[in-house]
Write a structure and sequence with these properties.
This is Peptidase C39-like domain-containing protein. This protein has eight helices and six strands; from the N terminus they run H-H-H-H-E-H-E-E-E-H-E-H-E-H. The protein has about 210 residues and is α+β, with helices and mostly antiparallel strands. Strands 1-6-2-3-4-5 form a six-stranded antiparallel sheet, sandwiched between helices. Strand 3 and strand 4 form a beta hairpin. Helix 2 crosses helix 3. The longest helix is centred in the N-terminal third of the chain and has 17 residues. The chain is globular. The mean pLDDT is about 85.
Length: about 210
């Protein structure tokens, strides 16, 4: 399986509507908004749409201090649960499981946490510690996985371009590099997404009643 020209075209069409973070430490609420907006449009569900201000609150974002992911799934669940969706988080997924989430019709794109050394993989970019995101784990949106590489969107892209050092922000990374930043280093990183809740059938309801 390879990343095809069609994959690149779909990627570009999708990320054209994505937001870029406006400050160095806001990758989590920005990436979260992007996957929720895209899923809301694809699912025709306005209940998945949130303002960036709302997501900043959900993520405990404080400018200069980044965000806290710990309570995000629970808080998102409170917001989307009544609309038939659930927020999921997992640690130690493998590449096959990640690919299944990406390709699933009933789920959003995932967001993944990468080690801060991610920024060291970007040519011509020399981030300032504590200023350009280097001190915090970084959040990206994986878009497609193949046997050699991962196609992804980085909400930091426009900040790199504005720095005048990076003309074309990186959107593809080797499987080996990605896995090392995501799950291969000492601290395993999380993956988060939203998906439809399983539908309860009449047979399941009847089976539940009969077991009481």
């Amino acid at each position: 399986m390879t990343i095809t020209e069609g994959d690149y075209e779909q990627y570009q069409e999708t990320v054209d509507g994505f937001h870029s973070q406006q400050v160095p430490d806001s990758c989590l609420p920005t990436a979260l908004k992007n996957i929720l907006d895209e899923f809301a449009e694809r699912a025709g569900e306005s209940g998945l749409e949130f303002s960036l201000r709302q997501l900043n609150n959900i993520c405990d974002y404080n400018k200069g201090m980044a965000s806290t992911a710990e309570f995000v799934p629970e808080r998102l669940e409170d917001k989307v649960g009544d609309n038939g969706y659930t927020a999921k988080v997992a640690i130690n997924l493998d590449m096959s499981e990640l690919s299944s989430i990406i390709d699933g019709d009933s789920s959003s794109y995932p967001i993944v946490e990468l080690d801060p050394s991610y920024f060291d993989t970007i040519d011509e970019w020399d981030p300032r510690p504590g200023v350009d995101g280097r001190n915090w784990p970084h959040i990206i949106v994986p878009f497609k996985v193949n046997t050699d590489s991962v196609l992804y969107h980085d909400p930091f892209d426009e900040m790199m371009v504005r720095s005048s050092y990076v003309d074309n922000p990186k959107c593809e990374i080797s499987i080996a590099e990605f896995y090392d930043l995501w799950s291969g280093q000492a601290q395993s990183r999380w993956t988060m997404w939203v998906q439809e809740k399983p539908q309860t059938t009449l047979d399941q309801i009847a089976a539940g009643d009969s077991s009481e």
